[in-house]
């Protein structure tokens, strides 16, 4: 999750609203990464690999989420610098977690990692799986905290107009990726 829309959300959030906003965005993404690796290592993501219906459902839901996410980033107008409240912090974690878990690219990345790269057969204990998932989450959190730290300090030197420009460009890219997955799922559902 350290690349793509989450990177920009973390950077922009910390540049506009301070380090804590970037941190809570990073925390949601990191928890999502750890959760997806956990699901992959216990075998739940294998269902996606074997079931065409689940793949289409993930493409549909994740694609739609990315389209909404892209449109939100493109049309964002809230670049003032208000403080972050506790309820908004938890909402930020939840939204970023959901965005990470339902992102088809992230999902398929962890599916590939857990089924193709880290195929240990029956050699993993639950302790290994939990430890590996926690370390993945901490790794993502570490990288995204660096992004939040940089965003917080660089944000003072970057104009709001330039932050809006980056948000719009990222919104268009996210919209394109989401549109691809969404319309591919529609194409499969319609049988064309």
Describe the 3D structure.
With 192 residues, the chain is mainly alpha-helical. The chain contains eight helices and no strands. The chain is flat and about 50 Å long. 42% of the residues are buried.
What is the chain-wise order of helices and strands? Answer: HHHHHHHH
Helix content: over 70%
Roughly how many Å apart are the termini? Answer: 32 Å
- Overall 3D geometry? flat
Instruction: Please give the number of β-strands.
Output: 0
Largest sheet, strands/sense/barrel:
none
In angstroms, what is the radius of gyration?
17 Å
Q: What percentage of amino acids are in beta strands?
A: under 5%
What's the multimeric state? single chain
Rounded mean pLDDT score: 83
The low-confidence runs, each spanning 5 or more residues with pLDDT under 50, are none
Tally of contiguous helical segments:
8
Alpha-beta content class: mainly alpha
List the helices and strands and how they pair.
Layout: H1 5-17, H2 19-42, H3 44-50, H4 52-74, H5 86-102, H6 104-117, H7 126-154, H8 160-190
Helix pairs in contact: 1-2, 1-7, 1-8, 2-5, 2-6, 2-7, 3-4, 3-6, 4-8
């Amino acid at each position: 999750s350290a690349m793509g829309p989450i990177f920009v959300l973390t950077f922009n959030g910390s540049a506009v609203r301070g380090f804590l906003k970037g941190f809570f965005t990073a925390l949601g993404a990191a928890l999502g990464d750890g959760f997806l690796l956990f699901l992959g290592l216990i075998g739940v993501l294998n269902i996606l690999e074997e079931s065409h219906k689940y793949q289409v459902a993930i493409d549909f839901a994740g694609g739609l989420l990315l389209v909404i996410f892209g449109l939100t980033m493109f049309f964002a107008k809230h670049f003032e610098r208000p403080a972050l409240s506790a309820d908004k912090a938890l909402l930020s974690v939840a939204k970023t977690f959901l965005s990470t878990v339902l992102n088809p690219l992230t999902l398929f990345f962890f599916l590939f990692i857990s089924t193709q790269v880290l195929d240990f057969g029956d050699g993993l204990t639950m302790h290994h799986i939990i430890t590996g998932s926690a370390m993945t989450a901490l790794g993502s959190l570490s990288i995204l905290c660096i992004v939040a730290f940089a965003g917080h300090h660089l944000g003072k030197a970057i104009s709001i107009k330039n932050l809006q420009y980056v948000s719009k460009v990222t919104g268009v890219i996210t919209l394109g990726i989401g549109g691809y997955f969404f319309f591919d799922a529609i194409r499969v559902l319609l049988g064309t």
